[in-house]
UniProtKB/TrEMBL annotation:
Any matching Pfam family: CelD_N
Name of the protein this chain belongs to: Endoglucanase
Family the UniProt entry places it in: Belongs to the glycosyl hydrolase 9 (cellulase E) family.
Organism in which the protein naturally occurs: Rufibacter sediminis
Gene3D superfamilies per UniProt: 1.50.10.10, Immunoglobulins
Catalytic residues in the record: 833, 842
Amino acid sequence: MAVCSIFIELQSVSLRILIIHMKRRILLPVAALLLGSFHYVTGQDLKLNDREYFETQGANVLVYSNLFTGGFNDEKNAGIELIHHGVRTAQGGAVRLSNTPEQWDLVPDILNRKIDRAAKTIEATLRYKEYNFDSRVVVTAKGKGVEISVYLDKPVPKELEGSAGFNLEFLPSQYWAKNYLVDGRPNLFPRYVVGNTVTKPNSQKPKQYKGYVTSDDRGTGKFIDPLPLETGRTFLFAPDSPERMVKITSPDADLMLFDGRMLAQNGWFVMRSLLPAGKTGKVLTWTVEPNAIKGWVRDPNIGFSQVGYLPAQPKVSVIELDKKDKPAKSASIFRVGDDGKATKVFTGKIAPWGDYFKYYYVKFDFSAVKTPGIYYIQYGDTKTNNFLIGEQVYSKITDATSDIWIPIHMNHMFVNEAYRVWHGEPFKEGYRQAPPNTDHFDLHAQGPTTDTKYKPLEVIPGLNVGGFFDAGDFDIETGSNISVVQNFVKTWESFKPQRDQTFIDQQQRYVDLHRPDGKPDVLQFIEHGTLNLVAQAEIIGHMAQTLSNSVLDNYHHLGDAASLTDGLPYNSKLGPYEVAKDGRSSGVKDDLWAFTSREPELDLRAATMFAAASRALKGYNDDLSARALTQSKRLLKEATSLLANQKQDTSGRGNAANMATNLQLYIATSEKQYLDRFQELLWPALERNVSGNLLTALDAIPHLDASYKEKLRPYVVKYKEYIAGLEKNNPYGVPIGLTNWAGSGDVMNFGTTVCFASKYFPEIIEGQHAFKATNYLFGAHPYHNYSLVATVGATRPKAVFYGNNRADFSFIPGNVAPGILFRKPDHFENYDDWPFLWGQNEGTIGGNTAYLIFGSAFKNLIK
């Protein structure tokens, strides 16, 4: 490696910068900074490319390619964004109303986005309708960087003076422990949040989403406002790290650096300038210059299965390359021997696949390597970590999910693991009826009536039993829990797993991990989920939308679920935070609410699940089995009648739910009326969408005659054509989602469908297609090659996930990440040093139980 050391003198401060030449790159440029001048030896100027963002090799500046949402608002995925040497390191560039915006702070609507190629500009108009406040942000290519200008046709509203400013946020994990310079003064980005705050009257706090408030002021009437870490006119970020070095200057306003983690663990470092009061026209200008290392080429991402490979299975590595990179002609496999020495055992040709969004892809087939052992791949100067080839590599892929992740997410239970308590028993005070016309911050709503016999804010008895936490939060999303029970039932009925590693006692409300109790865990999971859902149907009369937080300041709770509320029912006769003398109630408004507006489609889904659960529970918990079947029949009848009186459902969701419900009821009861209705709905559904409905059709095969299977055959042929299309669509040959929730779920559904289709139609669907799903989940995917399942991977599973312990930068074993998130127009990402982006890192109870099905089906396939 070439090493270049330079010294920069700034106001008598000597700063030594060591710049190390990374392998496969030419000599890195020397950065020189003098007090009155700044110079980069970099590549080409930023250009406005045909994908409508500013680009040079090593630096991309996106301008409102991705917009703020109206649901979760500031998701740290929008605005002006910087993709710096392959990593999205800055985002959120926009006029904002606070120093360190939180998730539910207001975000501007983007009214328009204009491209002027002649002027090399991208312009957007931003509006805060809550304040009738518009601004225009114009970004112009300027040499090695961009100029960002803010224009106002009307002055900043009086109530926003001192609040409205331009912000650009930087990813903490890419900057902590690095240096920065402010007008020549050296400083250090903190690893953990430090700094100072002040408190201000709540009357000065800008409005938040739908009037909600993110924090509990504990009766002080004041909110916390962070103070800047530093203030100046020129900031140089990371002069000690060329790949992250950015210079920001402003000729007409102070630049202030804030640490957004002061208010929220998911906050970023924020660069901010206030907009001046009483001015119009161009009111603010910044110049942002990201360092672009001359000749930089992104290292190859060698995609392979971290879990390993069976000796006889196909083994194809997908290698993701910078388009400036020159593909090698071959790659090699090395085996690590008993003496620890590596020996080359195979060399094969590299086969081109082609461009896919930002990168170029090639493939390396090493299926010829079959001898069990420890191996790694060498491509050019890049080699992977070790992986295994052996007969047992897939034998434990679901154990961490079923033994640890799932029981940890059991609600209304005390969950223990050895010396550790994951959480105490949550929500002993139960759930209150959500009042009418409540628009919830988690995208739920209570309509104009309660649709129940309970008065607004009245406690609904009996709901605090069973159920699973939805995801990285602690609510019970009914739709998710319905899917979860169905997933457990399918796992049980298809594979009868006898694994018993969890002690579950419903009377004690106690769970102990790694402690067998003589009962199959999956049956106990079915029981636990059904207990809550049957309670909803029996007590409310139909399914609740959700059992969730009533106040925003405990919705984002991180830590023990049992401490989310005080465990005492709210008593309106008590003062704030007062506890009754008998200790049985309090004045704390922290009780969870039941959102009970009736949705017939949800009732249909519940009817499907109840029918399935009744079968699984028969002989294990006969009382609960009978109750579930009763509710299935009732909800099917009532929901079908309600839907008939509504507008025609054009989405197809109602028919899909009705189709599956009738199938499950036929399996449970053998009544012909359900079979007839199932088939009436099935065939049109397959015509519309074979890939989305084939799995339900396959579920019916064991319960119907041979003529049904033959009628299904042409649709399986269509699915084969769908598989072939995926091979042409992307280099991984699996469905890759391009929305704001990454696509691991689609990949698992694909893998499960292949497993069952191959079981029933092996002459049409080859089982080896399922290996594409495991390869993708376990490391052969864009951006990096880490396994997307926590702790599952021979050497390198992902290290951090969005769970309820995300503030610890950790994981819950067995968690399955949503995966590789697509950012428009052409960037994939999955942060492994920053857990807080749920669309790529949050495990859900629905997704993890879908993984349980897929893993079980896959293990069954390869027997």
